[in-house]
Amino acid sequence: MASKDKTDGGIVDTIKTVAYALLIAGVFRTVFFQPFWIPSGSMKDTLLVGDYIVINKMAYGYSRYSCPFSLCPFSGRILGADPKRGDVVVFHHPAKNEDLIKRVIGLPGDTVQMKAGLLYINDTPVKVVPAGTFTETFAPQGPMGELPRCQNGSVGEGADCTKSRYIETLPNGVSHDILNIEDNGPADNTALFTVPPGEYFVMGDNRDNSADSRFPTAIGGVGYLPAENLIGRADRIIFSSAGRSLFYFWTWRMDRFFKAI
Q1: pLDDT for res 1
Q2: Which SS3 state, helix, strand or coil, does residue 249 take?
């Protein structure tokens, strides 16, 4: 009888341990980190469709969109640092009920403008150097089946879809890849934007395939991003799948597992 009681007690202890571990993991995930799946190609080639990343929710403090358990009634932001130019951030869209990911380009008070496809910050052109070609297969990507846009024109399914790759270096020294699809697209020449206090200017790295701060919310863009809409900073890719489902193990991109962003 004592042996049975001991066995039953061991099972109960094991269940308690697992329950506590899951509870701690859930709190840790909710309070400090949040997973985010990349559904579109606006951040290629930094982030690909099917990348599964971790967001650091503590990086910029808490707001009504990042607060644990969504119980924060306040507006604004508390306990966090300000985003740095070049940070890749996840945020709640100012006008639509969805979360997006882009790169911080303009800080409060900055002027931002695109001229002939070149980025100007505070009237100074950003340094850009050629970095070869980004090539991917022209085929439906991810569960949404999105087809990539190609610089090399209309190609058949299964063919190589290419884009020019450049390395862009921002004024604070942060360097990252950008892609170019067309030389005179809708966002290659813009008005001069002046970023208001408490807001940011964000852009996708896939410059001709991103509805970002270059476009107003009225036509599907982001416009200026309020600081209180920030959810967190994208720090690391933990998993990546090129297929329509993460269960298609033959489409896993092993070289992107646990890759820093």
Answers
A1: 52
A2: helix
Residue 179: closest CA among 146, 225, 148: 148
What pLDDT is recorded for position 102?
A: 98
- Residue 70: count of CB within 10 angstroms of its CB: 10
Over range 208-220, report the average pLDDT.
96
- The tokens describing 76, both together, are 């604004």
Secondary structure of residue 174 in the 3-state scheme: coil
**Amino acid identity, residue 38?**
I
Residue 62 tokens read as 């808490």
Amino acid at 171: P
Mean predicted lDDT score pLDDT of the chain: 86
* pTM (2 d.p.): 0.84
Say which DSSP state 83 is in.
P
Contact 138, 157 (CB under 8 A): yes
**Judging by DSSP bridges, how do beta strands 225-226 and 127-137 pair with one another?**
unpaired
Active site residues: 42, 102
In the chain, the largest separation of any two C-alpha atoms, in whole Å, equals 83
Which of 179, 229, 224, 236 is CA-nearest to residue 205?
A: 179
Secondary element (H or E) of residue 30: helix 2-31
